[in-house]
Amino acid sequence: MPLTFSTDLAEAPAAREVYLDYGAATPMDPDVVEAMLPYLSETFENPSAPYARARAARAALEDARGRLAHLIGAKPQNVVLTAGATEANNLALAAVDGPVLTDAIEHDSVLACAEAHGGIVIGVGSDGRVDVDELRRRLTPEVELVSIELANGEIGTIQPLRQIAGVVSDERARRLRAGERTPLLLHTDASQAATSTTINVSSLKCDLMTLSAAKVYGPKQVGLLWVADGVALRPLVRGGGQESGVRSGTENVAGAVAFARALELVGERRSEESRRLGELRSALLAALEETFPWMKVSGPRNASKRLPGLLSVSFPGLEARRLVVLLERLGVSVGTGSACAASRMHVSHVLRAIGLDDEAAAGSLRITMGHPTSEEDLAYAAWAIAEAVRREGERVGLDVRTGERA
Fold first, then answer.
1. Active-site residue identified among 340, 352, 387, 391
2. By CB atoms within 10 Å of each CB, which of 67, 154, 163, 195 scores lowest?
3. Could you give the 3-state DSSP secondary structure of residue 102?
């Protein structure tokens, strides 16, 4: 039997606290915390120091690096540990001098870096997917790096990265035949995709890949940049020469150990979790669409082209910020687009890029589920969202059965 949820407002269910903003932050898995703790209090030494206890810290750091490399099908020496995905993205795009080609729904850190490099920004379809033919047309001989995220954390779109890699490969071959010496690299930010899709670098055929521990039930401010053989990075942080001279500063041993354990657990659970979260998302969507047929859904409808645990919905005529407050009072925490955009209280560039008008974008909620999310959580959330929409509709004079002004 398909999973179903009710939005019947006649009788309120028992109140509960439900967190549905896993796209912004995931809680640390208890196993990850346990793995990390010894390196916060016992083996705390600086891994660059010369004595035996410090060498134990160094061994733990390099063991974590090796495990991370294994999980993405890479060599340890090609993994650069960073303070999160934003730094990794900055480090990746700093590797080139020439123009960067990217798409309009990338993370702000990629768009800002691309702009600093004379970026070429291509549009996306209404589902957020990059048009590979458009990318091919815009990939001029001057472009030195293409940066396309593996999956979007706001509307859930999974990009056709292997096809994009094929376009990059074709352009490299053309340049070689023409005697052109301009290099061309492919970078992907796979942070949002790691819990749901393959992140094997050989399979993705990229040259640089970003990951974040904070998106896989690990600690915040821990990330990595995988770098293919032959790609030269330029340090953004200079000083002690750590991370092979690319990223100076005392290494975060505890963070690296935790990241490795978190990514291992995600890999073990990926298949089953993707199926489970997909079913939860489908049931929630069905309940909301039945109750509010005028509601808009952003991102691909095809399950194979979207993240399984993410649902982006819009209630035109209502303000998402007010819905979030009402939901918080009911015990449910959801987002309004990306956390970065929401914190600045402006319409998300992602929603603008897919053609959502301002009224619909202003009423958009991003609902993201995670490993702790249960059927009971979603059942309550379905009711709470319906209740919040009803209350706000009454306040502004909107008929929530039709989406029209009363």
1. 340
2. 163
3. strand
